[in-house]
Design brief:
Length: 209
């Protein structure tokens, strides 16, 4: 029997979401209505009391005109090692304790592997804890861009449209992210993968910056 997903630290993205929502003049109740969740859930996400699921975060970002890159800590890691913004170019090397991190519901973790937000590409280390998933089976995700993944450890389930794949360590996959898709951990071992997303900014719901 698999172990329950660990409780992750707060995502630390709530204030950014709230600031953007208020800047656009959208009420908490209205944004909740648009993405089909309760106002109380939005309130908890904005206060970093609850980490959003992958699907909820995509929906919020799309409605608020944010890219995923906008949600990571803008100056490096999420802890005390975060870089202080200067006019100097960022160090091209990113050490593990300097990575910008987003913790999501059910044990999904995104770690940015670039020192700064890159508008052209997202380069991530993605972890799916035992029993975790990007979204429920009946609620597939779509967004702009093309995804490329390489599984390092664990076994990853990937559904793209009507097709389903089970990826073992060493397997890779690429797919059009505008096709409905879902990701989940298979078995009793967490999944670790390298992930690249190209062209997410081509999503018409996300303003070009």
């Amino acid at each position: 029997m698999g172990t329950a997903p660990q409780r992750l630290a707060p995502s630390h993205i709530g204030p950014r979401l709230r600031e953007q929502r208020e800047r656009l003049g959208i009420s908490l109740r209205e944004i909740a209505r648009r993405i089909g969740v309760s106002p109380s859930l939005i309130s908890q996400i904005e206060r970093d009391k609850v980490n959003p699921s992958v699907a909820t975060l995509y929906a919020l970002a799309s409605e608020l005109g944010l890219s995923m890159g906008d949600l990571f800590a803008t100056d490096g890691g999420s802890g005390s090692s975060a870089r202080t913004h200067t006019d100097e170019p960022a160090d091209p090397v990113v050490t593990p304790d300097e990575r910008a991190v987003i913790n999501l519901a059910s044990g999904v973790v995104w770690e940015r592997l670039t020192p700064e937000r890159d508008p052209n590409v997202e380069f991530l280390r993605v972890t799916y804890d035992v029993g975790s998933e990007s979204c429920p089976p009946e609620s597939l995700i779509t967004h702009g861009g093309r995804e490329y993944a390489f599984v390092i450890s664990g076994r990853l389930g990937v559904r793209v449209g009507f097709d389903e794949y089970h990826l073992d360590p060493g397997h890779s996959i690429t797919f059009d992210a505008s096709s409905p898709h879902r990701l989940w951990a298979i078995g009793n071992e967490p999944v670790e993968a390298l992930w690249v997303v190209l062209g997410r900014q081509s999503d018409s719901r996300v303003p070009q910056t």
